[in-house]
Amino acid sequence: MILSLMILLPVLAAVLIVALPGVTAGVARTTALVTTLALFGLGILLWSSFDSTTAAFQHVENLPLFAPYLAWHLGIDGISLMLIMLSVFLMPLCILASWESVQKRVPEYMAAFLIMESLMIGTFAARDIFLFYLFFEAGLIPMFLIIGIWGGARRIYASYKFFLYTLLGSVLMLVGMLYMVNEAGTTDIGALSVYDFDPRAQFWLFLAFFASFAVKMPMWPVHTWLPDAHVEAPTAGSVILAGVLLKLGGYGFVRFSLPMFPDASAQLIWLVFALSMVAVVYTSLVALVQTDMKKLIAYSSVAHMAFVTAGLFALNTQGIEGSLVMMLSHGLVSGALFLCVGVIYDRLHTREIARYGGLADTMPKYALFFLFFTMASVGLPATSGFVAEFLVLIGLYKTSSAAAFVMTTGIILGAAYMLWLYRRVAFGTTAGDDTRAMPDLSVREVAILLPITLAVLWMGIYPKSFQDPMKPAIATIMTRLDGRVLATLPTDMTISPGSPLDLLPAAEHQGVHP
Amino acid sequence: MIQLLVFLPLLTALVAGLGGRIIGHVPSKIVTTGGLFVSAALAWVIFAQFWLDGAAGYEVPLLSWIQSGDLDVRWALKVDTLTAVMLVVVTSVSALVHLYSWGYMEEDPDQSRFFAYLSLFTFAMLMLVTADNLVQMFFGWEGVGLASYLLIGFWYKKPSANAAAIKAFVVNRVGDFGFSLGIFATFMVFGTVSIDAILAAVPGQAGASFSFLGMRMDVMTAICLLLFVGAMGKSAQLGLHTWLPDAMEGPTPVSALIHAATMVTAGVFMICRLSPMFEASVTAQTVVTYVGAATALFAASVALVQTDIKRVIAYSTCSQLGYMFFAAGSGAYGAAMFHLFTHAFFKALLFLGAGSVIHAMHHEQDMRFYGALRKHIPITFALMTVGTLALTGFYFTAGYYSKDAILEAAFANGSSASQFAFFVGAFVALLTSFYSWRLVFLTFYGAPRWAGSEHIQHAMHHDHHDTEGTTDSDEHAHGNPAATGTAGYHPHESPWSMLLPLFLLGAGALGAGYVWHHQFVGAEHGADFWRGSLAFRAELMEAMHHVPSWVVHAPAVAFFLGLGAAWYAYLKAPELPGRIAAAVPALYRFLTHKWYFDELYDAVFVRPAFAIGRFLWVRGDQRTIDRFGPDGAATLVAGGASLARRFQSGYVYSYALVMLIGLAAAAAWFMPFGTAGR
């Protein structure tokens, strides 16, 4: 029942905030904070009662609501658990971050966030394919509203762009889902995950789902909605967008594409690798020349998400585990970076990098946090970013040394654009009197950034806590992938080599490594 | 004990770094410095166990780190002879640099932060040298890089310091790119990242080949060269050296600790730690030898024409690291470590001595404005001379033993690469002697030329006591270098907190070679001392004793020739250097522009990166993807931006509606047929 409770509780709170007459901004804020904290508490409960030794779905609820079309079927494995934890962890921080900066239509704003939280939890917990689709697509509606109502100057253009990209992918995915249900005769995700679709059908289904997930990731070249959406979104919107919504695509790949279309996944790794390789180099270079802080971090998100896709389609344990850790890590780190931008945006009301400078002098506490998250973003060991990058790349190398080679340049380029950003914001001399007059972090702001700092360190030093619940789920996916024939790539992107197979002990064999 | 040794600096760094503003500067300094002296004492105890008692190596597992499939990485501390040597070097120099900084950084308003960074660096370096697996080594590797970045940019208001800090980090990341790929390849081939397990399995992989980037390559050669790229970055070898001279923007104690004695030697340490791997690839050894020799020559040639006292020593460091690398490439890992060990003493001494000079000269670093300082700061002068004697390899100093061992080993190795390295090395010894004595003569001898210095004028006119960082001297043009005289300025000898470290390092610079050469490079005792912690070739060490006598005497000849030439050019006939520069202007420009590496990289990498980034952003994202994507769709459907405008009101609701109706209708349509057909 705990999952249903987690989905319904925020909806209830949202309805109360909006529907009850005379709800002031203060009451709305407090209600939202209490609700999100309660959800975080439920999340802890969920985690502590989770059995990490089994791949079976837990906390399963199955209410055949509109069977056979749609069932209220919920359940979580370790992957869902971790992504739900990420959502409920970030949400109270988002409410806190909006505490002072949002003054317009506060009850509606808080309600939008609460509903979004509900839909995100629903997406990660859904075990029915159409239920998933509803949550997955509906989750974007509060985000449209948040950008469209509380966003910046070009908010309409941004949300329109966001909408257009998403729509295209959704339609294709829906068609794919209908075919699958029709073919397999069930809407149960678990049953679909073990159903063997014809490899030719898999190819088209893969592409249909790919259209949707690639937009959500976002992968190059369907990434251009992201910088605009981030720039126009309010701080907390950016945090959720980068922190959780960008994870929907990766979650989709892991939940649908890999187990349901294993043959197509193995055949199309070249497509994913190519797009990921381009994304890392392309968006990193673009990030280098940005003058708007949020755009820079948005482009860096695209580069980081390319690590997720490349790792998933390395189709081995290290790659997939690394991708999932990357999703969690990026959720924390990029969320924190957007919060950092929000802190100074609240003070100076500009995202223009050139208007800042010398903050190490005037805002030392802020400079320390910002430095920490900068380093986490460039993947310094002992932060979560390193564990993620390292696992992805070491897994990717086994599958394709060329892809790993290109992706690893990301560690150079990432350092370049992030340090260049940090240098312009925190070092040098202050750009003006108004910049110099900015006060250092308030207690509220420290309370927002400190928990994320601790989580990033925890995940960087002892990632086992986060990896262990996910391991059985990943093992299940690996079983599905075992023995699939990898695509033969053109010689310049050799795949089967990457491994000195003919000279190594027979234990390592060509193809997918279990 | 080892846990306390390693984690105490982390603890003190956190106390001073996070609590510095609360507890104040002096407590922060006491905590960090005290902690480091405790660590240093422990390090000597551990070293003595290996040196005197012949203790066996051991490992202390701490915590599980990254576990995934067959990959298992732990946090662990590995201690053997090689580690013990590094522990002594790192903690001793660090403790002395902490002490020295009490005096040097006395006027700085951010002292707590400085000491915290120093201790943080030490912790990362200790994690690097105690790593039992490649990933933890990489942790230390990047950790020292972070500390180096923070310390180079310590005076963050200076644009040049910020630029140098970013350059150091990014260039090191280029090295780390290679290191990372090396780790990935190692894991794929060996199925483990544990150093012991890898080294044990190396013989089985010798001669094997695999595909890398579509090319068929020898496994050990590919892995070793990738790892070596990492070593080149950290140890500033030719090609990835450009960050090291710029790193001199950091406070001088930092240069002594990080950019002379410890961090930059991490690459040498790595190769020695993994020496059985390099032994399995002749090609890799050859590359290491050539790169080392080329770096030694390049850096020494540039050092000849530098006028900034710290940059001379920086290029000298770069050059000496080249010696260590070609020693390792020649199979003389013991000699490489020996030079690392002795170099730590005398190069830290030279840097801290230079710091003392800079301190006395009110932060003037340009040797053209020095002169005649031996009478004013005699203790600094004496100790700088000791350091110079050791660097140039005067009889029985530390450098004499280690540099001779390297040259003899290179000669005795017999391969053509090592032969080449020997001749280059002997010639570089001559250059080393010349530029080192040039530094001494320009600084301490001749007539005072202080009057032309902006810094000195500043001091005299304003009696202004600013730190290096807060003066804006870089923007000022220097005065007239030809101006002579003291301008009434009286340099003062540094306080005891700065001089005491100089004395201790001086003792090391004089005695370390004599005391330990049997252990590090002795044919008889070496194997017993190293106990398999590096690939020790006793027969090569033996062969060193049978090289022709001209080989043995070559370094001494180089010493005297260099000393004589420097004496002639800078004391006897001081107009000579200018005449030579004027006679071969092309060569002179080539050297003062540091072989044009910075210009080349700027033109080939830095500016194109920004240009391509701008191109992709404008031409790629905006004018291609957006134009034919979302913007184009809008144009196509509704003619221009009006669609977007019309969307304002109802788009969200239409979206929700489309989604729901679509889902319901499609499901209703499809499913009955589907299930019926089954």
Automatic annotation (TrEMBL), chain A:
Record carries keyword Transmembrane helix? yes
GO BP, sorted A to Z: ATP synthesis coupled electron transport; electron transport coupled proton transport
Report the transmembrane regions from the record.
6-25, 32-50, 70-97, 109-126, 132-150, 162-181, 201-219, 231-248, 268-289, 296-315, 327-345, 366-396, 402-422, 443-462
Report the locations given in the UniProt record: Endomembrane system; Membrane
Claim: Transmembrane is one of the keywords in the record: yes
**A molecular-function term among this protein's GO annotations:** ubiquinone binding
Q: How does it sit in the membrane?
A: Multi-pass membrane protein
Q: Which UniProt keywords apply?
A: Membrane, NAD, Translocase, Transmembrane, Transmembrane helix
Q: Which residues form the NADH:quinone oxidoreductase/Mrp antiporter transmembrane domain?
A: 126-410
Domain (NADH:ubiquinone oxidoreductase chain 4 N-terminal) ranges = 65-120
Q: A Gene Ontology CC term for this entry?
A: membrane
Q: Which Pfam families match?
A: Oxidored_q5_N (PF01059), Proton_antipo_M (PF00361)
Q: Which InterPro entries does the entry mention?
A: NADH4_N, NADH_Q_OxRdtase_chainM/4, NADH_UbQ_OxRdtase, ND/Mrp_TM
Family that this chain belongs to: Belongs to the complex I subunit 4 family.
Q: Which PANTHER family match?
A: NADH-UBIQUINONE OXIDOREDUCTASE CHAIN 4 (PTHR43507:SF1)
Q: What is this protein called?
A: NADH-quinone oxidoreductase subunit M
| The species this protein was found in | Sandarakinorhabdus glacialis
Q: What taxonomic ancestry is recorded? A: Bacteria, Pseudomonadati, Pseudomonadota, Alphaproteobacteria, Sphingomonadales
TrEMBL record, chain B:
Q: Where is this region: Disordered?
A: 461-489
Native source species: Sandarakinorhabdus glacialis
Q: Kindly state a single biological-process term from the GO annotations of this entry.
A: electron transport coupled proton transport
Location(s) in or outside the cell? Endomembrane system; Membrane
Write out the entry's keywords from A to Z. Answer: Membrane, Transmembrane, Transmembrane helix
Alphabetized PANTHER family for the sequence = NADH-UBIQUINONE OXIDOREDUCTASE CHAIN 5 (PTHR42829)
Work out whether the entry's keyword set contains Flavoprotein: no
Top-level taxon: Bacteria
Q: Name one Pfam family in it.
A: Proton_antipo_N
Give GO terms: molecular function aspect only.
NADH dehydrogenase (ubiquinone) activity; NADH dehydrogenase activity
Q: Does the keyword Transmembrane helix apply?
A: yes
Every NADH:quinone oxidoreductase/Mrp antiporter transmembrane domain range: 131-426
Task: State where it is primarily located.
Answer: membrane
One Gene Ontology cellular component term attached to this UniProt record is: membrane
Q: Lineage of the source organism?
A: Bacteria, Pseudomonadati, Pseudomonadota, Alphaproteobacteria, Sphingomonadales
Show the NCBIfam families listed in the entry.
NDH_I_L, PRK06590.1
Its topology with respect to the membrane?
Answer: Multi-pass membrane protein
Its recorded name reads: NADH:ubiquinone oxidoreductase subunit L
Which residue ranges does UniProt annotate as crossing the membrane? 6-23, 30-52, 81-102, 114-131, 137-156, 177-201, 213-233, 254-276, 282-305, 312-334, 340-358, 379-400, 420-440, 498-516, 550-570, 652-671
Output compositional bias ranges, type Basic and acidic residues.
463-478
Residue ranges annotated for the NADH-Ubiquinone oxidoreductase (complex I) chain 5 N-terminal domain, each copy included: 65-115
